[in-house]
Amino acid sequence: MYPFDAIVYLQRDDHYKRSDLEQRAQIDAMSINDTKDKVLKIPDRSDYLRDQRRSGQEIMGVLPALYPRELLWAFNILPAEIWDPPGEILLANVHLQASICPIVKRGLEFILKSPEIINSGYLFPHTCDSLQNLGTQVKDLIGVPVPVYTFYNPKGEFNKASKRYYSEILFNLQKTLEKSHGLLSQNQLKAACELGHKIDIRRQMLHAALMEDRFDLSNREYFQLIRAAEYMQGQDYLDLLNHVEINEQIGVAPRARLLVTGILPPGDDILNFLDESRVRIVSEDLLSGSRRIPIVEMDQPDDPMEYLVERFFLLPPCSTKAGGLDKRLQYLKKLIAKSRCHGVLFNTVKFCEPELFDQHFLIKSMKVMGLPVLNLETELQPGLSGQEKTRIEAFLEMLDEGVPV
């Protein structure tokens, strides 16, 4: 998904089904305001970050996945998340074994190319052992011309001690950033938390609308919108989210309804194929998506640091937090029920240990429920292979035959 298309069409009105000439004539006849209502512009990732850099913006490269974005905003740092940058992996293979997940490989490849766009350092959250080890390599062995920061999220079953620990690491990260960015303004931190709170609420509303078939985005368009959070300024992203119209009426029923779970959404070519097959992803449980949004609407931030602590512990169950499998299964069951999905698509990043640890139990449990499951393994390469297409077609035929849920 690097880069994103510049324009995403949100409304699938009848005039989009006519000839090109009719489309142009009708679009030309629209007023500027009407056109604005029909088109959502998602800036290209590279162009957006280059523009930010030229304007003097501090930009920090952030590896996946859970980190206090509001704290960075308060220091006037723009997080640029590094998940799956494109291109051939050439330099990183020298430093990593073959059985390392492609997110780690692509992240290191990006760092080794010393992109000028990153001028405020790199942040490595403790998402998994591989990313933690990568942070150590980059900081102590490889070396880069900008600072390297680490952020060790708590793992396992959470309790009062976990909250105290999270408060401490937030405070430690604050003090570390103050050494190079000046004292933190509590007013700026509160404003950043208020902005993040608005984004969370809007994201919750959009996910609910997705489950209820109440907007007109395609599968690819929806995930382009969600992933724009990885590089846009908070206010720019909130404006983008607010531009998406949620319909009052339920849309046309798709051929099949899927829930997708994993680290990243399927690639663009797979999403396009699902769109062409009239299959709609009606809910998602992705680390790059809804797993980073609180499961309930939070109160307005009062004490910013307390808010950030509470927010972390209200995030959905996730393989990277090493919590109980039963809790994650129960959460997925709720998503399945709310979205009325017909099947589940596991989009599995190859060699992703946290996901693979959970996956066997989850797939087995869903099959016991009578829910069809398709597991696609990806190395984050572009395109749709013949084998993948055949497997998806076979899965959809199984759904067409009405396998009971």
Description:
- By secondary structure, the protein is α/β, with parallel strands linked by helices.
- The chain contains 15 helices and 10 strands.
- The strands form 3 sheets. The chain has a 4-stranded parallel sheet with strand order 4-3-5-6. Strands 8-7-9-10 form a 4-stranded parallel sheet, with helices on both faces.
- Helix 8 (186-211) packs parallel to helix 12.
- The two termini are 32 Å apart.
Key terms:
single chain; 405 residues; alpha/beta; 4-stranded parallel beta sheet; 15 helices; disordered N terminus
What layout of secondary structure does this protein have?
Layout (H helix, E strand, L loop, with lengths): L6 E3 L10 H10 L2 H7 E3 L3 H10 L3 E5 L6 H6 L2 E5 L20 H11 L9 E4 L3 H14 L5 E4 L8 H22 L4 H26 L7 H9 L6 H9 L13 E7 L5 H9 L2 E8 L17 H9 L12 H15 L3 E7 L3 H16 L4 E6 L7 H15 L5
Helix pairs in contact: 7-12, 8-10, 8-12
Short description:
Helices cover 46% and strands 13% of the residues.
Q: What global shape is seen?
A: globular
Order of helices and strands: EHHEHEHEHEHEHHHHEHEHHEHEH
- Distance from N terminus to C terminus (CA atoms, Å) equals 32 Å
Give the amount of beta strand, in percent. 5-15%
Structural class: alpha/beta
Low-confidence stretches: 1-38
* Main sheet: strand order: 4-3-5-6
Main sheet makeup: 4 strands, parallel
pLDDT averaged over residues: 88
The number of distinct helices, counting runs of at least 4 residues, comes to 15
Helix content: 40-55%
Instruction: Give me the count of strands.
Output: 10
Query: What's the alpha carbon Rg, rounded to whole Å?
Result: 21 Å
